[in-house]
């Protein structure tokens, strides 16, 4: 389903420049339906304005004097059924004529009057109890979730808590956004008063949803653009990914023994195994969703037959099918848990719905749909964004074009006792390697080979000797195989709405073998680092906390403010870009 919608608090449709502004938005974005709140006009004047917008259908809630008013206008591409209307909201069902998909939309105009606004939320909370379809709320809520959504003004902490409680009570979540941070401004005061919220069913049916804050024209509010299905398609290339549920299959141990054959190269061994496992997954293990539907259909058939005729064979078949279905449901939960990266839920509980929603939200959150280029323009072209990413991180991580000058360093660096140095370089024992492996999180994101730490942990009796031999060879002066040294670079947003590549923290996804090497080295360095690092350095040393620096900084600032002397004081805040080997 591909649908576009726009919602805008226009603060009055009677202004001569309203039509100019809204027509520009409509030309640029071509929404299937348009929600307008705070129209501030009614009667025949409303008919004249709506007819000039170019939508063949519309419904409206008249304004009361110079306040309120909600309009909904739509094209032939959708069918709208109005279900409820209220001074502060319009609730309707929308059906896409092309796909047949339907969902619920509630257009909100929460009154700025706190007394009137309090009457709105009970209506919506009761509505949430009866909703069983995908549901989206869009419009001006006249509330913020926390202080980060305001700038230049004093927000109400209690009002934010009340808004959070309302969202939680209705089982909703904020869809997020891209574009400008704030949707309303007046003078030097900014706030995010307009937003889109959705329920669980929306996440399930329409995971590819994008909300954009457009630019500001005429009104103090900016329009919100909703895009459902209008997203770039991912590359068709699919990397191998180990699935933890494979180990529950009766044939997995045989497949493992047949295809893990070490031949002096660990990378070649892993490559042959993953290729064989991929084929085995397709031909033997099968697609979980299809297997579940097949077993459920057979189970319904067996139970229906038992109602007509009691049979020992049918009783046995029904029992076996129930056991098989339980096993498949466990595998399905493992799959979604692995995709969601959630590890804190009790493993004995079946939480497939929770894990599915977490995975869907994670996928939507991780998509880069548009970013701001160095020239200040926004770009959503995939090729341009890829080139810009390569340019940005090549400049950050690449070697300096001009060699650094020699520095005359007069201070003495700490030295390490030769005996201690010897312990750092010792060849690790098999037990030391195994302990390092067991210390790893089982299903963290894997490297390019697609194998999680759990694979090596659970199959240590098969792979352990080969892994130990390869790691010990590297400590003896051998070369780390290039494929084991390859790293996938992924971007973790530093803030909720990243606007440029500088707002991402690059994280390398390394192979488990590479992680084992570094973990062994790090464990050995723990006892040495306090001898090398100055006591004032609070980061990266066990037992020290970087929060000490934060507290110290606050004390310094407080002292500067409290000093009553003629001499001035100044602090410098320096932003550093770190790239491991340089600053």
TrEMBL record:
It holds the Pfam family Exo_endo_phos. One of its GO terms (molecular function) is catalytic activity. InterPro entries: DNA/RNA_pol_sf, Endo/exonu/phosph_ase_sf, Endo/exonuclease/phosphatase, RT_dom. SUPFAM superfamilies: DNA/RNA polymerases, DNase I-like. Residues 473-583 form the Reverse transcriptase domain. This is Reverse transcriptase domain-containing protein. It comes from Hibiscus trionum (Flower of an hour).
